[in-house]
Amino acid sequence: MMAGHYHLLIRNGICVLPWGEVAADVGVRNGRIAGIGALAAATADEVIDARHLHVLPGLIDPHVHLREPGDASVETIATGTKAAVLGGLTAVFDMPNTAPAVTDAQTLAWKQDFVARTAWCDMGLYVGATKANVGALAALETAAGACAIKVFAGSSTGDLLVEDDASLERVMRAGRRRIAYHSEDEYRLQARRTLFAAGAPYATHMLWRDVECAFLGTRRIVALARATGRPAHLLHVSTAEELNYITDHRDLCTVEVLVNHLTQVAPDAYERLGGYAVMNPPLRDRRHLEAAWAAVRDGTVDTVGSDHAPHSRAAKERPWPACAAGLTGVQTLVPVMLDHVNAGRLSLPRLVDLLCAGPARVYGAVGKGRLAAGYDADVTLVDLRAVRRIEESWIVSPCGWTPFAGMRVTGWPVATILRGRAVMRDDAVTGAPRGRLVQFR
Predict the structure, then answer these.
(1) What CA–CA distances, in Å, run from 350 to 287, 339, 357, 441?
(2) Cα–Cα distance list, 238 to 192, 220, 242, 341, 424 (Å)
(3) How far apart are CA 303 and CA 359, in angstroms?
(4) What is the pTM of this model?
(5) What does the longest C-alpha to C-alpha distance in the chain come to?
(6) Cys bridge to 217: 122, 185, 207, 278, which one at CB 3.0-4.6 A?
(7) pLDDT band at 19 (very low <50, low <70, confident <90, very high)
């Protein structure tokens, strides 16, 4: 029996450890895990009884757009990170296509300070690459809290775009850390746009941004990464063709798949949701969804994210293609993925790998990614037996909607613990914002 005094003891839970699920207690001192095992003889300032619950390392959403600086009526760091902890997340990595974009030291410093004052969970910050800031990227990628350089090789929301091979190669030769890519091919996107009339059905979005737009873009990025030796993280990979191709380049490339591309299928999603199904890259048919699940099972996929990208209802309800592209998801990521676990599509340890160990490994997050002595005491407690319905009344993002409204799920996060302190218990945030910048190596 291990004795001693802890600041927090999590007792009687089933811990998801790197080697499997184990009945064990977790002891926390000074914000870090100090003991895992049979701690019945130990004392603590606070005890959480995790009986009938699974104890996961703190889960991470590595792909969110919290829109700050930007439009507070849609989302802020405060509201987006509150949504994150309500959804069982202890860290999020925030994209740079804000207004203004995070492309220079001054804007990054402003955002670093804002995180320290208002975030409910820990945060990593992407820095956007442009054709004009290449000379500064090597310094920016090592700034406090910077998780990666983000390159938009295909246009999406915002004005960041690096589309030509010469500029992409210059970015790849500036710095050393893995670069994250939106890899749709801009030239094909622009050439195909004139083929479709305004006001067409929303499902036209997947015809415009077709499989070849994604596959061509990914092939170009991989070829340039191979030529420069710069590691690439391919975001929101959405096609069977890309996933098959990437298996030959795993020495250089890591892969993200979105929860939407594992859950929502065209054309049904467009028929049910209209503009609320429009995102980049688009939702696709069942062949691609099944390929994504196959890639989850065979290990091709390293991370799963939400690509939380809120917009106002008015912006989502405009006719195509004027409707805004992007779906909310940071608060619903964990419940939807737990439902997939209960449906037998993946194991709970594999979920932890995709939502915790994977992001920590790909981005080099220090002290995150597993339940282990010396790591940050970030913990997500989940009830795999809980049956809930996702309701828009639960969503705290100011935009107020979710594409998963009405979905019945089995599995729910019941507590979010950040460095040994509960920031969410039973659907309520507790205390005050105490998020910090994640440290990256």
Answers:
(1) 22, 13, 9, 24
(2) 19, 16, 7, 21, 32
(3) 6
(4) 0.97
(5) 71
(6) 185
(7) confident
Please, what are the domains in the chain?
A: 5-55+377-429 (2.30.40.10), 58-363 (3.20.20.140)
Written as six digits, the tokens of 280 are 């980049």
What backbone phi and psi angles, to 5 degrees, belong to 257? -120, 145
Taking the C-alpha atoms of residue 231 and residue 225, their distance in angstroms, rounded to an integer, is 6
Task: Tell me the pLDDT tens digit for each residue of 346-373.
Answer: 999 999 999 999 999 999 999 999 999 9
Model pLDDT for residues 189-227, shown as the tens digit of each residue: 999 999 999 999 999 999 999 999 999 999 999 999 999
Asked whether 340 and 304 are in contact (CB, 8 A), the reply is no
Residues 6+ positions from 189 with CB-CB distance below 8 Å: 154, 155, 208, 209, 213
Q: Over pLDDT 90: what percentage of the chain?
A: 95
Asked whether the beta carbons of 293 and 362 are under 8 A apart, the reply is: no
> Closest by alpha carbon to 128, among 88, 182, 62?
182
Structure tokens at 173: 């030769």
